[in-house]
Inverse folding.
């Protein structure tokens, strides 16, 4: 594929981003933050990199003095535990087994799967749902099982994995920027004198 064609195709995918779903994600994350709940994130391959990146950005980017910080855990980041679970149980359980002792009602799990059919992500979604957590799914292609299972699906309708991953990463950046703005607005509102 020609590089210019690649970028023009990504632009067309961006034109169809489900912004209402993205707004829902922002609201869910902010509500969890205000309640002191934990956000968990998982994915495989490029989506694992996005999960780690999202976890980093969510922990750092929205920081504003006087506002609560996000409690966030990227389930992709403990290599020793991931390989132990994969070796001793199953790779399909690599995220769900981490969640079992940690996830609680009111928490949030973000599962990222380009195909929407990654078994280990789906298993984690089920564990989170059973615990009463809110589930969010970032998916591509036709959305797969992930789109059907989660409370808030963010479906990037594209059949090129690299482009799905590009847009997922852009969305996590945009979400963190919006959360930063909301924290900044909350501080400004708190210091404004009553009219």
């Amino acid at each position: 594929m020609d590089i210019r064609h690649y970028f023009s195709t990504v632009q067309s995918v961006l034109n169809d981003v489900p912004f209402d779903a993205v707004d829902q994600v922002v609201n869910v994350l902010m509500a969890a933050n205000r309640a002191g709940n934990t956000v968990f994130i998982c994915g495989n391959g490029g989506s694992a990199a996005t999960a780690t990146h999202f976890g980093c950005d969510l922990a750092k980017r929205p920081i504003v003095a006087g506002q609560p910080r996000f409690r966030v855990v990227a389930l992709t980041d403990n290599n020793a535990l991931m390989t132990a679970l994969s070796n001793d149980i199953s790779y399909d359980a690599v995220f769900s087994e981490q969640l079992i002792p940690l996830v609680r009602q009111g928490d949030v799990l973000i599962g990222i799967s380009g195909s929407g059919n990654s078994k280990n992500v789906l298993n984690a979604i089920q564990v989170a749902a059973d615990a009463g957590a809110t589930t969010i799914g970032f998916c591509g292609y036709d959305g797969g099982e992930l789109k059907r299972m989660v409370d808030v699906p963010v479906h990037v309708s594209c059949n090129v994995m690299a482009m799905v991953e590009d847009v997922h990463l852009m969305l996590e950046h945009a979400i963190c920027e919006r959360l930063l703005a909301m924290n900044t607005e909350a501080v400004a509102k708190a210091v404004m004198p009553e009219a």
Remarks:
- The mean pLDDT is 96.
